[in-house]
Amino acid sequence: MTEVDFFVIGAGSGGVRAARMAASYGAKVAIAEDRYMGGTCVNVGCIPKKLYSIASHYHYDFQDSHGFGWDLPAAVFNWNRLRDNKQVEIQRLNGIYEDLLINAGVQLLKARAFIRDPHTVEVAGKTFKARYILLANGGWPHVPDFPGRHHVITSNEIFDLPDFPAQLIIIGGGYIAVEFASIFAGLGANTTLICRGNMPLKGFDEDIRNKFHQEASKHLKILCQTTVQAINKHDDGKLQVCFNDSTILKADAVLFATGRKPNTANSGLENVAIKFQESGYIQVDEHFQTSEPSIYAIGDIVGRQTLTPVALGEGMQVANYLFGDKSRRLSYDNIPTSVFSHPNIATVGLTEAQAREKFTKISIYESDFRQLRHTITGRNERTYMKLVVDTISDRVVGMHMLGAEAGEIIQGFATAINCGLTKSQLDSTMGIHPTAAEEFVTMRAVSRN
User: Fold this and answer.
1) Model confidence pLDDT, tens digit, residues 435-446
2) Is the CB of residue 207 less than 8 Å from the CB of residue 384?
3) Which residues lie below 8 Å from residue 190, measured CB to CB, with a gap of 6+?
4) Per-residue pLDDT band at 56 (split at 50, 70, 90)
5) ∠ CA 341-170-385, rounded to 5°
6) Which region, left, alpha or beta, applies to residue 237 given φ > 0 means left and ψ of -120 to 50 means alpha?
7) Rounded Cα gap, residues 66 and 75, in angstroms
8) pLDDT band at residue 430, thresholds of 50, 70 and 90?
9) Using an 8 Å Cβ cutoff, are 186 and 59 in contact?
């Protein structure tokens, strides 16, 4: 039996950060990972998704270049080359994560960990006695039960398909479904997005949802208030998808992106007194301590904000609380996020609906325009920006954008909002001309109160 201060289950972003931080404070740390180093983000999430998003944008860049005087031969997309180059980059990142742990003095075990009791973990026949255990198992794609469910793929498989799907159906209305729809439409697939709700991106600002629906419909087909009833496979390999409104579509592949569930199966949690929420997420307190005092949990399995930077922050918070500065706290206010769709979406702070619930009076500022480059390309693509202001305090409480490089733009403004940015401060800031970002500091007219 090996004794450690801290045993981490899951070497994703949050688990690796927690392990390294704890080790830096002098704790004896071990970490177990049975799938791949870096977790969802590095392997089947943020990184490959962004690489594929970049690849898909070249489709439009090649078209747009003509208006700027460039005559190019017909562009031909090679799926195998993109897929293989992506795999090389992911392998490089896997190695970096492993080196980070080893160099920090963390014992790395490449096998699934199983909890025997509140202080005992078993990994590949080895037993570890731990003062504290951290659950950082991450999430797993969820596919509901229906006839033909075994024919679908998830975000775990979509990046490495042996053949490019010329016809692709994507089921889901959240940001993962929206991103993949934009990616594969850009890469040349005939793409259909199936959304159960009245519009994609539930939970985002309503104006952003509306504007995205309008823009995305220029590149792909979107069917709302639609659900899958059954999927059948024909002898030619094509999939036949039957929907609730009797519509039938054919596709080379069907991607289910309807949500993720905590990856807690076969972890031995039945051997400890951990409580779960009705949604399946693990219950934790403000310090990420579960109902079992020696066990903590972070990231996708607690479901507070299923974003990589949040998991990193939570991992740091746990390491600080157990081995470092106990006074530090993690705030979930004003977390910026981006949807790598086409066009890009980024947001920070409150939606208009949330602000109306929280404040007695708000002011909305908006700008809807065609970016400079498209005055020459001729592309009918609109950019939309929105400010939500608490009228009484003059504080900017929400900032939303749909348009090229929205994530890059909102990231900078997020810092200002976190520091208490006011509308008058925005008004007094000089813009960089000509840029899209300058619109945020030149909005003067109130759209509505």
Assistant:
1) 999 999 999 999
2) yes
3) 166, 167, 168
4) very high
5) 25
6) left
7) 13
8) very high
9) yes
Phi, psi (5° rounding) for residue 4?
Answer: -135, 160
Average confidence score pLDDT of the chain: 97
Fold of 337-441: Enolase-like; domain 1 (3.30.390)
Instruction: Locate the domains of the chain by residue range.
Output: 2-141+261-323, 149-258, 337-441
Q: Which of 151, 213, 234, 433 is catalytic?
A: 433
CATH topology of domain 149-258: FAD/NAD(P)-binding domain (3.50.50)
Q: What residues form DSSP beta bridges with 170?
A: 193, 255
| Closest by CA position to 29, among listed 117, 146, 133, 100 | 133
> What is the token pair recorded at 416?
């200002």
Q: Torsion angle, CA of 313/315/317/319, rounded to 10 degrees? A: -150
Contact 13, 315 (CB under 8 A): yes
Please give the C-alpha separations between residue 438 and each of 37, 347, 365, 369, 433, in angstroms, as whole numbers: 40, 16, 14, 12, 7
Residue 66 designated active-site: no
**Can you read off the two tokens belonging to residue 379?**
């592309």
Q: Do domains 149-258 and 337-441 have the same CATH topology?
A: no
Burial of 388 (0-12, 13-18, 19+ CB in 10 A): buried
Fold annotation for 2-141+261-323: FAD/NAD(P)-binding domain (3.50.50)
* Number of other CB atoms surrounding residue 88 within 10 Å: 8
Report how far residue 337's alpha carbon sits from residue 139's, in angstroms, rounded to the nearest whole number: 19
Provide CB contacts within 8 A for 148, sequence distance 6+: 230, 231, 232, 233
Residue 58: closest CA among 218, 219, 187: 187
d(CA 198, CA 225): 5
Per the listing, tokens 């024919």 go with 151
pTM for this prediction:
0.96
